[in-house]
Amino acid sequence: MDDKSYPHLLAPLDLGFTQLRNRVLMGSMHTGLEESRDGFKKLSAFYAARARGGVGLIVTGGFSPNFRGRLHPFSAEFSSGRAARAHRVITDAVHQEGGKIALQLLHAGRYAMHPLAVSASAIRAPISKFTPSKMSTRQIHKTIDAFARSAELAREAGYDGVELMGSEGYLINQFICQRSNHRYDEWGGSYENRIRFPIELTKAVRQRVGRDFIIIFRLSMLDLVEQGSTHEEVVQLAKALEAAGVTILNTGIGWHEARIPTIATQVPRAAFSWVTEKLKHEVNIPLVTCNRINTPDVAESILSSNQADMVSMARPFLADPEFVAKAEQNRAADINTCIGCNQACLDHVFVNKRASCLVNPQACYETELVLTPAATSRRLAIVGAGPAGMASAVAAAERGFEVDLFEKNDHVGGQFNLAMQIPGKEEFQETIRYFTRRLEQTGVNVKLGQRITAQELKGYDEVIVATGVAPRLPDIPGIEHEKVIDYQTLIREKVPLGQKVAVIGAGGIGVDVATMLTEPEHQDLDSWLKDWGIDKTIDHAGGLYPHDEYVSQRQVWLMQRRPGKVGKGPGKTTGWIHRRVLAKRGVELLAGVSYDKIDDQGLHITVEGQQRVLDVDHIVICAGQHSVEELSAPLQAMQIPVHVIGGADVAGEVDAKRVIRQGVELVAQL
């Protein structure tokens, strides 16, 4: 075993008064457990698993230093001795596993979703319903004191440090930028005045906690909004923060109101490490870089090229709590990779549901979704090796079942084999890789190229049917025309299409197909940054510059029957990205469409009472799916216990999050 496979990633970091065991920071994530009943017990198990997995320093989700700073009226606050005592269960659990943990202090400012919101100025954020009150000088001083008091309480609670949330457009960031600070007193106007708040706040925290306590400052190094900071200003603030007593500077990328993707799967890996590198030689304290770093190789490359001193990863630790330990043991191939989908983490948190992970449903359910050894070993047949079948097969084998997994194709992965061919969804290949490896390691007997009948399943104690879905063909006159192709055939067989294409169905699959059809041929990091108008020099305010957007040479229409917004896609936090991409590329979005017929002229439709003929070369059908399931009835007749999961159970929109969780939960109960 070569434990020096990642020498920079696994090197300790000396902070003077303490040492971190490696260069890995688990970035702040809100899980929803912070406010739930009995949540701290579950949260302590969640953090303990990551500490046990080798993380150098964990940062909690954000806690407000006072009531007005809460994100929601019932959001987590950390401002009393009682709160400090309650948090002991978390810090003790992490320390027992040899880890270190810092509490993030986050004041929402104008992002607060309640009428008591306050900010530097009374300017409503474009993503908020509430206009904040302008803070008085007295309120500013009281808020600074609240931060310092909370930091002192964090020390009492056993935390090793605090992170001051100064990025992503929250209160501290709101003072820094002209966009949200229109004051004319000593807290506004000139840049020196606008950065007075973060500097005074940092000084107050350092004075209250003493010298041997970690203070991380999350600095917005690239705002990605108009009237944001320039690089020169970021350097000025970074130096002032170092002088004020900050131990570590963490990178923040983009305000929440920015209309540029920063963490979704479409964003190239390590797309923003160059931002941190620009500050690297300006300060003498450790710098952390972040965003879309999801493998030890990517992390090692960043550190070895001296772009940063540490890497921050958040969602990769939802996907695999043992990420660091596996890197240490030279088992990077065993890591369950984060695919950046946001579907079970951010999408959940934004609707006040508990976070989890599409590829690891046990994340944030460590005390509930437990795979205990089976009392008696039984023979289990699973039919279908898509995401649901693979996940349930691995979970069953981990419990000690004897598992045979049957798949009619000559490969596992199901719909993920199609998804990974969509530009920006290449990460889905990682999930197939991970599960393929786990099937082998857990001893699952995988039988490819086998269409199994109910009769052949006679000798099994239980059968799980996960046979997935097939495309649904809508009832349109002329649907058999040679111009028509279904999405599965298009992606699987890479059928060449003409320059004018109609896409019927604007759900997640329709959006993916329209994106694929209009993707530029060569998309490297620099062209991706340029496409989104990101200025690598950060000379322009917020790091944005006016730019020419790429418009596809192929003409594409994306249509849906129902009226309303087109191209939402399945993700709550990523739908706007899909719509923005389609608009940028010139895709015509049509809602409330009736499909009249298909013939040699093209696709005949009616929209808002007007008849149109789209003179298209091809028509791609993405009009939903239907379940493929013929085994449960004959198996029940033979009195063999049968369970139907995944797309075979409910076709609906293709939802890997639902089907993987369903498979693991079922197996946990067998």
UniProtKB/TrEMBL annotation:
CDD domains in the record: DCR_FMN
Keywords recorded for this protein, A-Z: Flavoprotein, FMN, Iron, Iron-sulfur, Metal-binding, Oxidoreductase
Gene3D superfamilies: Aldolase class I (3.20.20.70), FAD/NAD(P)-binding domain (3.50.50.60), NAD(P)-binding Rossmann-like Domain (3.40.50.720)
Domain FAD/NAD(P)-binding: 379-642
Cofactors that this protein relies on: FMN; [4Fe-4S] cluster
One Pfam short name: Oxidored_FMN
Domain NADH:flavin oxidoreductase/NADH oxidase N-terminal as annotated: residue spans: 9-332
Family that this chain belongs to: In the N-terminal section; belongs to the NADH:flavin oxidoreductase/NADH oxidase family.
Name of the protein in its database record: NADPH-dependent 2,4-dienoyl-CoA reductase
